[in-house]
Each structure stands twice: as structure tokens, then as C-alpha cells.
Amino acid sequence: VGDNGSGKSTLLKCILGLKTIQGGSIMFDREMGQNDIGYVAQQDEMNRDFPASVMEIVLSGCLNKHGLSPLYSKKEKALAKQALSKLHIENLAGKSFQELSGGQRKRVLLARALLASGKLLLLDEPVAALDPIATQEFYEILLNLNKEGMTIIMVSHDIHSAVHNASHILHLSAQTPAFFGTTDEYLNSRVGHAYLGEQGNCRQCLKQFHSNEQH
């Protein structure tokens, strides 16, 4: 989380190797590299008029590991069906991407990211422009993926939703030093109080606040 222009999206692009870092280092587990990362960009990188089916788009998540073969294997197709089922959109497999709602498109792009990686997902404002119901459903999907062992790093402008769902918070700011720690530590920090006000005094109060917002 953090201010506009503080470097949130840039950080994700550095992890992906799309930008060169100016200092420090990015270290991966020895069993994981950049090709093991699933990524959903801030904006749909596919034109809504792109003439492809949902299944074709989800299968494209295999391309980095696909090799030179022009055909997808039975295993890859099975994994694509599994991803669609996990996100409750298996009924959309044969539909055109351009026919989908905003929430459905986000799920399709997330399913594609799952095929790229079973270990780490990077999400840049994935719920932007979604209505409240679609947003809540999307968060529930992410929480279930996390419970299954998927690590998720997500950029968000919605600090209230972030502290309600995240285990750790990295707060970037151009004016103040960055904060990184557990969500409870963030809620008790100076920067947490500054951005959350009295709502940041305790996590239980914040959960109640978030619940009231949904109602």
C-alpha cells in the first residue's frame, strides 16, 4: 500500500525483471525463479475485443514453460480446467473474452496467472473498477488460494481491505520512511495510525468497520 508514485507497481515490475533495480538485490528461493511467478497487471493487458476464448487465454499462462511445441499437452489442458474450476468460472471456458464482465475478466486473468505459477502471485490493483460484490468474491478467492499455500503479493490503494486480509503490510511513501511488518504491527505503528486514524488502534475494530462497510 502507499501513496501514488511511491513505487508500488515499480516494485512488482522489479521482482518480475521488467525493470532494473538501482540498488540492493532481489533474491528468490533456489527452487523458484521469475518463470514461477504469476502476474496480473493493473490494467487488463488484453483488449476487450481480442478474439480468443476464455480457455485459450487461460492456457496462454503455460507459454513460458511450454517450449517449442505448438500444441498444449493433456496435462496443461487439465491444469487449465482445474484453474477455471478453482475460480468458479468453468462454465465460461468456451465464451469469448470480449463478452465477459469486468469481474469475470479478472478471474480469467487470475486463472492464467495460476498456470504460470503454483507458488507466487503478483497482483497490481486487481479489484480496481470492480463493484463491491465482485470485489468481495475476488478477495475470498485470494484468501482460499493463500490457505492452499500460494504466496500473494498485492498492490492496493484500499488500506482498509489490505489490513483486513493481509498477514504483512509494506507501506511505501515518498514523504516518510517505508514500513514493513505484520498487520498487527502496522496497525500499532505511527504510519498506520496516520492513514487509518482511530480505526487503526485495533484489528478487531477494523474488522468490524470493514464488515459494516460491506453492509
What does it look like?
The chain has a 3-stranded parallel β-sheet, sandwiched between helices. The protein has a two-stranded antiparallel ribbon with strand order 4-5. The protein contains 10 helices and 5 strands. It has 215 residues and is mostly helical.
Task: Provide a compact summary of the structure.
This protein is mainly alpha-helical and 215 residues long. The protein has helices at 8-16, 54-59, 63-66, 74-86, 102-116, 132-147, 159-165, 183-187, 190-196, 203-214; strands at 37-40, 120-124, 151-155, 168-171, 179-182.
- Evaluate the radius of gyration: 18 Å
What percentage of the residues does DSSP assign to strands (E)? 5-15%
Tertiary shape: globular
Q: How does the helix and strand content classify structurally? A: mainly alpha
How many H/I helices? 10
Helix content: 40-55%
Q: Return the average pLDDT rounded to an integer.
A: 83
Spatial ordering of strands, largest sheet = 1-2-3
Poorly predicted ranges: none
Order of helices and strands: HEHHHHEHEHEEHHH
Overall strand count: 5
Biggest pleated sheet = 3 strands, parallel
Distance between the termini: 24 Å
